């Protein structure tokens, strides 16, 4: 059975992957020094995803965040007037992107003749994800039915190693990624692989958690551990900042970049409800060097009290901030639009604004 | 290694029992939170030990009743 074959248990298979002919798997040295960026425990993350997939009902309930972000990512496709024969969804989770693409009438501002689902622009979507159970959780669910978009095909691909893309260079007409790149250890490596598998002048549109995501939970647990135990252990991942993402995209060869942030604030009855939902999403803590085992009762008790005192809403609920970093980058091509040389502008923006 | 098995949906998870017991101690919880908030830039071990003990006692009593 597939589940028993954890990717990390099979180094010999990796070797084959690494030695294979596909040059897409090579990660480029972008910085001098060590290439081993190890922040997250990939095996723990895989287990968390499998566990989340096993709890179907809770998982579907907790899909609100990933579905929302996937929808916001896909809305950006409304601005691209193109057809995409072959599209990759990297880190597909439960195919949230496919769900968003298949949604009828995706443009909320459109006039009554409804717009077609975004999936009509796409011929084949390859949903790639390291967790087999999570990827196939909604295989028979009506939200992923392609009956109303006959030309659209959804292919599921289980990744042996979630940071090595087993695709040849210049394959895809677009790469999408929603809510999974914040678990990537080697972000520069993955971004340059994405750049490599894209055809020239094709976009990468992605979104991931970053910056101040869950700062309320982070600070409350830190204060609680400090006061109860006299020391702290990481409970919330270190996350990329907006500035880092812009720089990374530029260094990995993307052109015409757009990076922006959006905060989604969700209110929960208490800290435990937030933590249960995070677990059901498969977004539990997987930082290397964290304290293993569950958080002690004393710290939980203290953490909830501090969360309320420090961040609580007036109605007794507690807010949790999810900061989404959206990024768009285009693979370089000789005949794509380029920014003009600096200082070559003739019209003054000042005059325009003063008119 | 097998991924963890799903628990049946009818069982109440320990965290839910814990949460409902904690929710009965809002006064003690607020007192502890206030104590931390008063000095959150220099929190050290047992800064609010008394308030915490009161909170914990309340929780233990509530947990017995649940």
TrEMBL record, chain A:
<feature type="region of interest" description="Disordered">
    <location>
        <begin position="336"/>
        <end position="355"/>
    </location>
</feature>
<dbReference type="GO" id="GO:0008168">
    <property type="term" value="F:methyltransferase activity"/>
</dbReference>
<dbReference type="GO" id="GO:0032981">
    <property type="term" value="P:mitochondrial respiratory chain complex I assembly"/>
</dbReference>
<protein>
    <submittedName>
        <fullName>S-adenosyl-L-methionine-dependent methyltransferase</fullName>
    </submittedName>
</protein>
<dbReference type="GO" id="GO:0032259">
    <property type="term" value="P:methylation"/>
</dbReference>
<keyword id="KW-0489">Methyltransferase</keyword>
<dbReference type="InterPro" id="IPR050602">
    <property type="entry name" value="Malonyl-ACP_OMT"/>
</dbReference>
<dbReference type="InterPro" id="IPR029063">
    <property type="entry name" value="SAM-dependent_MTases_sf"/>
</dbReference>
<keyword id="KW-0808">Transferase</keyword>
<dbReference type="GO" id="GO:0005739">
    <property type="term" value="C:mitochondrion"/>
</dbReference>
<dbReference type="Pfam" id="PF13489">
    <property type="entry name" value="Methyltransf_23"/>
</dbReference>
TrEMBL record, chain B:
<dbReference type="InterPro" id="IPR034595">
    <property type="entry name" value="NDUFAF8"/>
</dbReference>
<protein>
    <submittedName>
        <fullName>Uncharacterized protein</fullName>
    </submittedName>
</protein>
<dbReference type="GO" id="GO:0005739">
    <property type="term" value="C:mitochondrion"/>
</dbReference>
<dbReference type="GO" id="GO:0032981">
    <property type="term" value="P:mitochondrial respiratory chain complex I assembly"/>
</dbReference>
């Amino acid at each position: 059975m597939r589940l028993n074959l954890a990717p990390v248990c099979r180094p010999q298979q990796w070797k084959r992957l690494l030695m294979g002919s596909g040059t897409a798997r090579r990660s480029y040295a972008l910085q001098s020094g060590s290439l081993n960026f190890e922040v997250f425990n990939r095996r723990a993350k895989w287990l968390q995803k499998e566990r989340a997939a096993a709890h179907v009902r809770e998982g579907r309930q907790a899909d609100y965040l990933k579905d929302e972000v996937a929808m916001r990512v896909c809305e950006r496709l409304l601005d691209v007037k193109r057809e995409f024969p072959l599209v990759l969804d990297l880190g597909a989770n439960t195919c949230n992107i496919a769900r968003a693409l298949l949604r009828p009438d995706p443009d909320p501002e459109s006039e009554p003749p409804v717009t077609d689902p975004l999936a009509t622009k796409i011929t084949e979507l390859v949903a790639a994800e390291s967790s087999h159970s999570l990827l196939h959780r909604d295989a028979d669910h009506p939200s992923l039915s392609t009956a109303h978009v006959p030309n659209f095909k959804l292919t599921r691909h289980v990744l042996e190693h979630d940071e090595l893309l087993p695709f040849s260079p210049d394959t895809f007409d677009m790469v999408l990624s929603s809510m999974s790149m914040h678990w990537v250890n080697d972000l520069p490596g993955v971004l340059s692989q994405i750049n490599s598998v894209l055809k020239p002048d094709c976009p990468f549109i992605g979104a991931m958690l970053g910056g101040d995501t869950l700062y309320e939970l982070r600070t409350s647990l830190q204060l609680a551990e400090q006061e109860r135990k006299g020391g702290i252990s990481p409970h919330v991942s270190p996350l990329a900042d907006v500035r880092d993402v812009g720089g990374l995209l530029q260094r990995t060869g993307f052109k015409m970049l757009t990076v922006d942030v959006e905060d989604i604030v969700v209110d929960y009855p208490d800290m435990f409800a937030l933590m249960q939902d995070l677990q059901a999403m498969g977004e539990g803590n997987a930082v290397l060097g964290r304290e293993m085992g569950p958080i002690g009762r004393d710290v939980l008790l203290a953490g909830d009290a501090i969360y309320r005192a420090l961040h609580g809403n007036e109605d007794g609920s507690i807010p949790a901030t999810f900061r989404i970093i959206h990024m768009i980058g285009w693979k370089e091509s000789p005949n794509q639009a380029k920014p003009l040389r600096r200082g070559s502008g003739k019209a003054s923006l000042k005059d325009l604004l003063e008119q | 290694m097998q991924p963890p098995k799903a628990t049946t949906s009818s069982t109440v998870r320990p965290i839910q029992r814990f949460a409902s017991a904690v929710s009965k101690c809002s006064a003690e919880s607020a007192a502890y939170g206030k104590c931390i908030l008063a000095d959150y830039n220099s929190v050290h071990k047992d800064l609010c030990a008394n308030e915490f003990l009161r909170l914990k006692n309340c929780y233990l009593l509530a947990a017995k009743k649940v």
